[in-house]
Amino acid sequence: RNTFQSIMVTDGRSSFVIFLYNEIHWTTGTASGGTQDGLNGVAAQVGFNAGDGKNYYAVNGSRTGAIINIGSMSNVGQPGKWVFRTDDLDIKDPECNLNGKADISLNPNKVQLKGGDVIFISGPCFKKSMDIRCQFGSVQVTGSFESVLRVSCVVPPNLNPGVTNVGLSTDGGKTVTNIQTPLTI
């Protein structure tokens, strides 16, 4: 028995597919030349295929015996988790291969006046080694790395009610990029 899950998500602008692999015990059916234990033969492929012979993406190790280890591999630094941006014919692996040019989004975009809410900032090029800071107006707070796709910050107390611009820094506050979605307090 194999245990895995496929999740498709979108915010209306960007779409992603998340593959979660837990336990993988076989890779090949008998129709693909596999043995009774589900091994050997032509192994399973992990990825996408539009069926047109041109638009496809396969994870390294697909169609080989190595795919049995998919539960311990990842493209986002979490064993068994694979995330792909799929809103274009060109499937994008979210590793930092976009030369820093990526959509950055904020969720939630409404928080309580008292502070303490956690906001998540998404964009496909975060690294654990980055010194994450969020700027709320003139107040800057330290953020946390969540994954290659997401960081988080706790909203500080005593911000002025209304709309506040949020900025993100990955270099300890030296440079700040404004996030297009404002935060409503």
TrEMBL record:
* Pfam families the record matches: NIDO, TIG
Q: Where is the NIDO domain?
A: 1-89
Q: Which GO terms describe its biological process?
A: cell-matrix adhesion
Which parts pass through the membrane? Answer: none
Mind telling me what this protein is named? Sushi, nidogen and EGF-like domain-containing protein 1
Q: Which Gene3D superfamilies match?
A: Immunoglobulins
